[in-house]
Design a protein that fits this description.
- Chain A: GO terms for molecular function: NADH dehydrogenase (quinone) (non-electrogenic) activity; NADH dehydrogenase (ubiquinone) activity; quinone binding.
- Chain A: InterPro entries: NAD(P)H_OxRDtase_bac/plastid, NADH_UbQ/plastoQ_OxRdtase_su3, NDAH_ubi_oxred_su3_sf.
- Chain A: It catalyses: a quinone + NADH + 5 H(+)(in) = a quinol + NAD(+) + 4 H(+)(out).
- The complex is a heterotrimer of chains A (about 120), B (about 625) and C (about 500).
- Chain A is mainly alpha-helical and about 120 residues long.
- Chain A has helices spanning about 1-35, 40-45, 60-85, 90-115.
- Chain A has two domains: about 1-45; about 60-115.
- Chain B is mostly helical.
- Chain B has three domains: about 1-130; about 130-515, no CATH class; about 540-615, no CATH class.
- Chain B contains 24 helices and two strands.
- In chain B, helix 8 (about 210-225) packs parallel to helix 13, helix 13 (about 275-295) packs parallel to helix 19 (about 405-430) and helix 19 packs parallel to helix 22.
- Chain C has helices spanning about 5-10, 15-35, 40-60, 80-100, 110-130, 135-150, 160-190, 195-200, 205-230, 235-245, 245-270, 285-290, 290-310, 315-335, 340-370, 380-385, 385-400, 405-420, 425-450, 465-480, 485-490, and strands spanning about 65-70, 75.
- Chain C is an all-alpha fold and about 500 residues long.
- Chain C starts with a helix and ends in a 10-residue tail after the last helix.
- The longest helix of chain C has about 30 residues, at about 160-190.
- A two-stranded antiparallel sheet of chain C has the order 1-2.
- The chains are: A mainly alpha (about 120), B mainly alpha (about 625), C mainly alpha (about 500).
- Chains in contact: A-C, B-C.
- At the B-C interface, helix 1, strand 1, helix 5, helix 6 and helix 23 of B face helix 7, helix 9, helix 10, helix 13 and helix 17 of C.
Amino acid sequence: MLNVYVNNYVIVFVFLCIGVLLPVGALAMGRFLRPHVPDEAKQTTYESGNNPFHDSRVPFQVHYYMFALLFVIFDVETVFLYPWAVAYDKLGLFAFIEMFIFVLMLVLGLVYAWKKKVLRWM
Amino acid sequence: MMEMAWIVPLFPLFSFFLLLLAGKKMKEASAYVGMLATFVSFLVASAVLADRVGGSTYKAEQVWLAIGSAKLTVGFEVTALNAWMLVIVSLVSFLVHMYAKGYMQGDERFSVFYAYLGLFTFAMLGLVISPNLLQTYMFWELVGLGSFLLIGFYFYKEEAKAAAKKAFIMTRVGDVGFFIGMILLFLQVGSFEYSDIFKAVQDGTLSQPMVTLTAILIFVGAVGKSGQFPLHTWLPDAMEGPTPVSALIHAATMVAAGVYLVAALFPLYEASETALLTVAVVGGFTAIFAASIALVQTDIKRVLAYSTVSQLGYMMLALGSGSDVAAIFHLTTHAFFKALLFLAAGSVIHAVGTQDIEKMGGLWRKMPLTAALFLVGALAISGVPLLSGFFSKDEIFAAAWMHGHGVLFWIAVVASFFTAFYMFRLFFLVFGGEERHGAKDVHESPAVMTLPMLVLAVLSVAAGYIHTPWFGTFLGDWLTDGGYAHEKTPSWMMIVAAIVSLLGIFLAWLMYGKRSLARDWLSSRAPLTYNVLLNKYYIDEFYAWTVGYVANAISRLFYYVDRFVIEGIASLITATVNAAASLGSRMQNGQVQTYGAVTFIGLALLVAILAFTGGYL
Amino acid sequence: MSMHTLLRYEWGVMTPEFIIIGTALILSLVDLLMPDDKDRRPLAWIAFVGVAIAFVATIGLIPAETTSILHDTFRLDAFGKAFKLLLLAGGALSLLLAFDYRPKEGLKHRGEFSYLMLCALLGAMIVTSSGDLITLFVGLELLSISSYILVGLRKTSVQANEAALKYVINGGISTAMTLFGMSYIFGLTGTTNIKEIAVEAQKLTDGEYQYILALAFLLLFVGLAFKISTVPFHMWTPDVYQGAPTPVTAFLSVVSKTAGFAIVLRLLITIFAAAPARGKDTSSMLLSMQDYIAFLAGATMIVGNIVALKQRSMKRLLAYSSIAHAGYVLVGFAAMSWVMIDSIWFYLLAYLLMNFGAFAILQRMSDEADSDDISRFAGLYQRSPLLAVAMGVFLLSLAGIPGTAGFIAKWNIFLGALMTEPGHYVLAAVMIATTVISYVYYFGIFVQIFFRPAAETSSLRLPIGLTLIVVVCALGTLLFGVVPGLAYHFLGQFEHFGDFLQ
């Protein structure tokens, strides 16, 4: 019985192997095939064609993150809304009330974010 | 009156609460609150005792907690033993309350002291009227808590703090035994009631090995509380508490609880010869062990502390020899003379301001009353004929002999010799000879301190006559409901006991008293006698070189055993736990990845066990 | 689903939850609409009143029959009722603590403090009466996520930030493990309904499936060990407890832990009690896994009590003590006597009383100087005798000294461990030994309070909220220590939670 269960995982395992081997193989192949003649100019780091002028780890505006978060939340909301809207006739009143509560909660969240001045840039 | 016995412990409890809440404002008046409470307790207890003398056991209880079919009850019981203990505890406690008024005068936490005393007395009184083991256990713990607070009363002294903690934790170690024994009894018998347990012992519901096991486990608790070897080390340290507390702890409460417990459960012990033997051997060994250590101590309270350990050993020996009457008898007389000795010692310390006997001397002239009272106590504890200690100790010797413990009997006799010796060594060093302390103004203690001592002195003399082979064994008859058969002991035993104690006193006199007293007094007035005594002095030398030397060596040996082996084992355990704690703290390095790793390793281990055991355990 | 079916549900059984959620919503709106300069401490009072009403509503629900609504995802049974009462009481006390919480740098988000606590409480309540893995998980996450934010609410405190981050990461690991375990269970039984799972699990006669079920058991247990902070998932506790604001620490140590035990009991007993196994008891997976639980309980007691010896910070000390107490409760679970749930419930009740009392006093002592070093307690007796005695009562109860609720609680657990056939002697011995060890550190605090001179002599004034907590907890601790029959009488009406599996 268990072997049947485990066999289902064989394919996962195969995928795992391929997933690991493919990049490793490709990079290794590249390393063997390419010529390797380093000089100073080649080894400098550059960014979009420019010479880097400071560390790449810099403090980030937290607002980017906030926006991203809010976006994800409302994106998920839409993901829920679409299937509900499509199947509205079948789901009936209960789902309507549920969805109403759901949207209400999200609106509350939006109001919260708004009042806390998350939506304002700077 | 017996149905009112439950009220006895409540007076000190009330005093505790009152002083806790209003003590700061009442200041010196706190003493009167405490005294009044314990005095009323004593009166009621006496009435209960009077009632019990003519009547029979009274017991009242009700269901406290029902878990399934198991019913736990609370209540109280007035047996002969309980009524007797009530009176002793409340009386000694009252006297200590009174004494402390003088002793603690001027302490800024005066009322707190009285509050703690109230709690302590309440716990002990509650303990002695408990009708079941569980209730006994609860008060037992409360007694421990009270002693913790009182021993650590002088908290600004490092030693006092350490002693308080040590007393609490050491006795707790014993309590674990008590607790497990109690639970085992409960699981076997299905009840904590003393009466049910005894019934189960009788009808064989409790198998023989189980009887032995539980009896010994509970005895471990008594060993801790009553300062028996090897859990005795807290008792001498507990001297760090104020002297009235020492008197209370050593005479009526705390240490008496262990003896009381074994006596209360006596039918359980009687059913197992092994358990009895264990009790007897531990008691006998403790008696000689502690007595020999007391020989070389120089702190007045430490001598008395080791003396208590030794005397408690006697009581255990009596119990182990099958005579609970002898144990309770000695408990009673010891309560009086040991309280007296402690109070007298406190009086001395109060006056001189040191506890080192090397720095005392000649106090006989300065404090005649204290000296006389101390002498009475010392004579009583040494077992000088006609005083209370003589009769109670004699009863123990007889019990040990009749029960066939020949070796233990002789050990007890030797310990009795030691007792007489160290008590009078103490007496002569403190009260006899020249003054060795500074030119401090030493004077007699106030009446509020001497009066309780006076009462105790009278009792130390008289208490012996409640149970003597000559005038009648009243206590024994009553405790056993008339079933007490005083075994005819060989008449030489009493003589041996008397001689041994007098010999000890004499030797002490030769070594510590005569040195100064005899020299000019005897040589000037009676040269002939002096020569005889000088010859005696050779005996003295002889003793000093043989008995004295050997005794000293044994004493030192035991002292080092005590210091290094017993305490060493204790510190080893402490060190192990500490090392484990350090290791655990180091694991807690604040790295979240370590925490995650611990979790995963834990899970992996569990899964590995699951895998390797072919399924599950 | 039509309106008809919708109205047919007995929504009344969810009254307490509705009250809490309503209060939380109203509070959040009020907080948003209030002018910025207004003091938000009264919000905690409103929240407190809300919880109190919910408490009364729950008491009103006690006579209600065992009901389950929403396709058996929400069930109100004796177990749920009893544990909800504990949770609500704990929540109410946390809110009182929060009301009087005054960190040195001030608390900017005081409004959030109240309603996040309500949300966490709601999650805990859902957990205790969910009949489905999904609602259970949602409740658990609601509790967890709210707690994560609560821990980090002192935004300017480095320690709080560290604590919050650690809590989130460890919480993530825990969630992953729990979900992994749940997925196995779902895979084996094909349903998320706990009762159906139990039925399906009984049919798993194949040894290898049973093996996977046992694996799921371990995953679930270790995952949930995070909430109850037992070995091996205990490491986060001291750091988080120390960094979190004191009311949150108290909340985590009592409410969150109670909820954790509620899940452990409900999930593990329902699913595994009747599942066949290969172990020592072939009729019950739960009994077969008993030794694992016992082992973890022993390890938890040892680790908690021993490491506590080394602590100087009161919060860390109480954290380790909380680990140790979780170990004692696990002993009750591992023993699996028939009074198991009763004794665990009583233990959690006693723990609630004594711990909240201790935390209330700790909060007062540490806010003063922004330090929770044990020496803050030095000479408390001189500064305020009554407070010192109250703290003494809590410590005695935590140590399990007779006369206090802590003793009765420990006693019942202990008795339960020995009552079964065969008795768990080793476990009981470990419990006793570690209890003795615990005296050392509890009495260390005791020594500080009573036997140390005070560093400062100013007398202490206790704010109203804290006074209320200290009084209620001290009285409760003593009351249930002297007449535990009251609590047992109350539990008696639940008849040992027999409707647990119906």
